[in-house]
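Example 4.3 (complexes with small molecules)
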Amino acid sequence: MIGVNHQNMNETNKYVLLKSIVTQAPISRAELSQITGLNKMTVTGLVNEYIEKGIVGECGEANSTGGRKRVFLDVLPDSLLTLGIYIGRDILKVGIINLKGQILQSESLDLSFMENNDVFIKSLFMLCDHLLETKYKEGIWGIGVSCAGPLLAKDGVILNPPDFNNIRDLPIVERLTERYKLPAYLQNDMCVAALAEVYFGNKQQYNNFIYVGISGGIGGGVIIDKKLYTGSSGLAGIIGHSIVEMDGIQCECGQCGCLEKYSSTRAAVRWAKNNGASKELTWMELLDKATKGDEICTKAIERMMNYLAVAIINMESAYDTECFVIGGDLHFCQDIAIHHIQEKLQKRAFSWGKITEVKVEPSSFMGSASFIGTVLKWSLQVLWAVHHLSVQ
Ligand SMILES: [Zn+2]
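Answer. The structure with zinc ion bound is encoded below.
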């Protein structure tokens, strides 16, 4: 029989309340009650509990219409710290991130030399060990990992991301919990990036948007009604493997002509090399040369943008979203991408007679959304479910 467990209900309320304080602060108890639908007594009780634990504090007051003062609440950001781990194609980032998504300290490592899982894990542990020796040590409650898919978030296993430096079938959550005795969670990098925009970014005015991250690979995170939409098997938004060229370049995913093979930073570099650029060319050099008017590098970027626009217009057709948020490692090229996509989408909107324009905006965090987002999902849930409040 399915029934509502009272304990679960109470924990869910705690989670909803804390999430609202994190995203909406400064906020009064009355406003919290309005937003969450919890009655005022419940809100007051839960807030008191958070204040006692040192997670929430009062941060000012204002006159309210009834003459009584409204006291505002906010989280104490450093009261809950996450050891955040972002595993990209080219870089591993490990850092300490607080409840407001601020990175307090971080270290990174070039990933291109990894030979296998063991070498990777050794390097990862080295960075984690180092950060766990810092002054923040006591405040760390758990570990959040974000990584390119495919992965099994529920089981904490990285499967076989294409072109991923020989890292595959890695039960990363198990390895981390074994060593550090802390709860750990794994999430798709683009999903947490999209959530980071919802929680900490400046995209709160949108109910629906799609985050598109462009780096060595390409991925997307879909937000519908302010919630992450992952699809029936967790694969919604994998824009990198939408087909932009029939019978095109073979992709590691098994298909041909995937966007990733045309519009990722790696693809642009590869194309430039095949068309006469130096065999040692890197993405940063390509960008630099393009600004100086180098013909091949400029063409490489144009080509990259044209394919990207095709895939994004297809996504718009499928989702009818309000905004595309562009993140990843585009650097100054981000503005070019935004302008280019905006132009193409506008043309399309005219042909459909669409009244509101689809926005295209840069990520709130430059290339760090997938890293900052590691604090999400797990940290608030762990807070109410595992540690502080339920288990004394
Ligand atoms: Zn593919």
